[in-house]
Design a protein that fits this description.
nine-stranded mixed beta sheet, binds adenosine-5'-diphosphate, 28 helices, single chain, binds magnesium ion, Four Helix Bundle (Hemerythrin (Met), subunit A), six-stranded mixed beta sheet, Creatine Kinase, Chain A, domain 2, 3 domains, Ubiquitin-like (UB roll)
């Protein structure tokens, strides 16, 4: 029987760098060419239809049926010109990936011919047979009705000759079954209240919207080596593997020269991204060997979320053409860094402001500080929910593992902002707002130093860091759908701004001047939310203790983190904002818990299978050789020499036996623990059973197997080793 590891290694020997053909030497020539964007719409739509679509995008105004027919036919004309034959509603079901069901444009005629057809009805709504998407009990399988509805705010695009129409996915009774619906609702909620609040500062503000710039980390691994590892194929991570003698300790990969094969892959990824209007701008090596990152220019959050989902799809498909596999898992390899997806988040306005940019004058700084104080307060009040928004079995392995921010949410604002906030605490509104027009400190609104922009992005250990003109939510996992942290962030901010407005208005009614009222509430928020601010090393043990003293949560694993989704406080907030109902939240809780359970269950099964059916037989085979050899020695050596020289060998035989027996015992115990857990009906209890009674076997089993890897003949070892996986040819 062939050893798949060597078959795979042989395949990697003649890997060639694939030549990348650029469609043109100017990116602008093909940028957005596969997107039904504004420019294309203008070309294909009547003036009337174009105006209607723009209003739908900007103001959320409903599109009339007559117009949707026009739009559909324009989309079809454009798409068929570009070679598309099919169309699909493209959505983000709660499975975590994206879903499509392709329909051809053709419609048969009675005379045996067919015409191309795509009408408004098919554009705005579809009813996929969606019975096997997770719904958390919202939609029972016997009434498998869910429908997708067009989201005109995200442009349609073409992938693989298919016109993809971004849609939401809801049940027949209107409950969301996807990630996009709550995201869109949160954006709406934030705009409604945000505009009201920001008008207090600037009458010209007519819209407030969140912006998102994500940074996507991932690993590349050779496709052949990947295929030779059942754990990678089935779980996206390695469950075994002794660390390589050299991995990231020299930090020579980070920002190093990019491997030629990887570079060709990235170039093609960028071409495909640019055609789809994804503004990818940055690419570089990350800390671990074969780990990379790419990041676009930030966009309006809904579009950025769609673009991230699309990018993850492209990563996968483009990698195949380069004989790579992309690992999106948060922790594919033990002992080297895992992958995250930093979410850079800010708030923008229709008149071109970034609300998180410190201003140039007193007025602008006043607004900036008020917005900042609301964010601090919102994060402080909802830190546990934010933690829940990034919870997954994969991310559990990163958070708190001394490489990624911990499971404790805190906010880093940097020295300068801290100074400003501290000085505000000591000022009365009169002092702060005094008309002396200076922006210079003592009298007048505290100055925010100009060096700020260069100087803030220094604390890499903070899960939520202010980086000059945006917040960077760093604890998000690489495989996550960014809609999750985004809809939570938008919602807690919307709720906070509601409170802010109420509290300011109350003071005004009591006779305070508007600016004084705003200042007083802002100052109070700064003081009340102080506990969420932490400037030190978030990876340290001291912070864990300090955070506990401050009453901040530290939910290390998904089962305990998720409960924040269904707390009364959360339910109240989301229902008041019309973002999610109790039913929807409970459904989501159930889906997430179930997903956690299944992921752990699969990992445990793979571990058991590989250990028992691949590792132990290999260990026994090698041990037999040693036994044979030892017996042979006994025949040829005199007994004194034999006793002296065979000691080490016999010791190795013993060690192997001990590992074999330990692996077998631990796997049996783990299987028994799984059986017990599987019988539990309550999903929460089952989640905790997996977390407490099953996961605990992973490390010890792994330890024995990884020790065996060092003992056993390299030629027999069946799994590609870390040194082979981590360094690209
Ligand atoms: P890094 O964090 O790697 O030092 P940058 O801080 O330059 O890199 O930017 C990281 C990401 O932040 C980019 O995707 C960028 O587009 C995004 N970003 C910059 N400004 C904003 C903003 N106002 N809102 C959201 N994202 C932003
Ligand atoms: Mg960053």
């Amino acid at each position: 029987m062939a050893n798949f590891r060597f078959v795979a290694l042989e395949q990697t020997i003649d890997r060639q760098v694939k030549k990348v053909e650029y469609p043109s030497n100017k990116i602008s020539d093909y940028y957005g060419s596969m997107v039904f964007n504004q420019a294309t719409m203008k070309e294909y739509l009547t003036k009337e239809a174009f105006t209607v679509v723009m209003e739908a995008i900007e103001k959320g105004i409903r599109i009339d049926r007559k117009i949707t027919d026009q739009i559909a036919s324009a989309m079809k004309a454009w798409a068929t010109n570009k070679g598309a034959t099919h169309y699909t509603h493209w959505f983000h079901p709660l499975t975590g990936s994206t879903a499509e069901k392709h329909d051809a444009f053709i419609n048969p005629n009675s005379n045996g011919t067919a015409i191309e057809e795509f009408q408004g009805g098919a554009l705005i709504q579809q009813e996929p047979d969606a019975s096997s998407f997770p719904s958390g009990g919202i939609r029972s399988t016997f009434e498998a009705r869910g429908y997708t509805a067009w989201d005109p705010t995200s442009p349609a695009f073409i992938i693989d000759e298919t016109l993809c129409i971004p849609t939401i996915f809801v049940s027949y009774t209107g409950e969301s079954l996807d990630y996009k619906t709550p995201l869109l609702r949160s954006i709406k909620a934030l705009d409604e209240i945000g505009t009201k609040v920001l008008k207090m500062f600037d009458k010209n503000i007519g819209k407030v919207y969140p912006t998102l710039g994500w940074e996507q980390e991932y690993f590349l691994v050779d496709n052949a080596l990947y295929s030779a590892r059942a754990d990678l194929v089935l779980t996206g991570k390695t469950v075994f593997g002794h660390s390589s003698a050299k991995d990231q300790q020299l930090s020579d990969h980070y920002f190093g020269t990019i491997n030629r094969r990887a570079l060709a892959f990235m170039q093609e990824l960028e071409i495909e991204s640019h055609k789809l209007g994804i503004p990818i701008k940055t690419r570089h090596n990350e800390v671990a060997p074969s780990q990379f990152e790419c990041a676009p220019v930030y966009e309006e959050a809904n579009i950025a979320v769609d673009h991230n989902q699309l990018l993850m799809h492209l990563l996968d498909t483009v990698a195949k053409r380069h004989d790579f596999k992309v690992l999106m898992h948060e922790k594919p390899y033990a002992g080297v860094n895992g992958s995250g997806k930093h979410n850079n988040w800010s708030l923008a306005t229709d008149n071109g402001l970034n609300l998180l940019s410190p201003g140039k004058n007193k007025k602008e700084n006043f607004r900036f500080i008020a917005v900042l104080a609301n964010i601090l307060k919102a994060v402080h009040e909802n830190e546990e929910l934010l933690r829940a928004s990034i919870a997954s079995a994969g991310n559990d392995l990163r958070l708190g593992a001394n490489e990624a921010p911990p499971a404790i949410i805190s906010v880093f604002v940097g020295e300068q902002i801290t100074g400003t906030l501290d000085s505000i605490e000591k000022l009365s509104s009169k002092e702060a707002l005094s008309s002396s027009n200076g922006n210079s400190g003592s009298l007048g609104f505290p100055k925010i130093p100009e060096i700020l922009l260069d100087n803030t992005d220094r604390n890499r250990t903070s899960p939520f860091a202010f980086t000059g003109n945006k917040f960077e939510f760093r604890a998000v996992g690489s495989a996550a759908n960014t809609a999750k942290p985004m809809f939570v962030l938008n919602s807690i901010m919307a709720q906070q701004l509601h409170k802010f407005k109420v509290e300011v208005d109350e003071l005004i009614v009591k006779g305070q001047k508007k600016d004084d009222a705003i200042f007083d509430v802002t100052k109070r928020y700064i003081i009340e939310s102080k506990n969420i601010r932490f400037e030190g090393n978030s990876y340290s043990e001291e912070w864990v203790k300090e955070a506990a003293k401050r009453g901040l949560s530290n939910n290390k694993a998904t089962p305990e983190a998720l409960k924040a989704f269904i707390s009364d406080k959360t339910v109240k907030m989301f229902s008041e904002l019309d973002v999610m109902s109790r039913k929807e939240l409970e459904a989501r809780y159930e889906i997430k818990m179930e997903k956690y359970i299944k992921k752990i269950q699969i990992e445990a099964r793979v571990m058991g299978d590989v250990a028992i059916n691949h590792i132990l037989p290999t260990a026994i085979k090698y041990q037999n050789r040693l036994v044979e050899n030892t017996m042979g020695l006994k025949n040829v050596l005199d007994s004194k020499t034999y006793i002296k020289l065979s000691r080490n060998q016999i010791n190795t035989i013993k060690q192997i036996s001990e590992h074999i027996s330990a692996v077998k015992e631990l796997v049996d115990e783990m299987v028994a623990a799984r059986k017990v857990a599987n019988k539990i009906e309550d999903i929460t209890q089952q989640g905790f059973a997996y977390r407490n009674e099953v996961v605990k076997y992973f490390e010890p089993i792994r330890k024995h197997v990884d020790d065996l890897e060092l003992l056993i003949d390299n030629e027999l070892w069946p799994l590609p080793k870390y040194r082979e996986l981590l360094f690209l040819k």
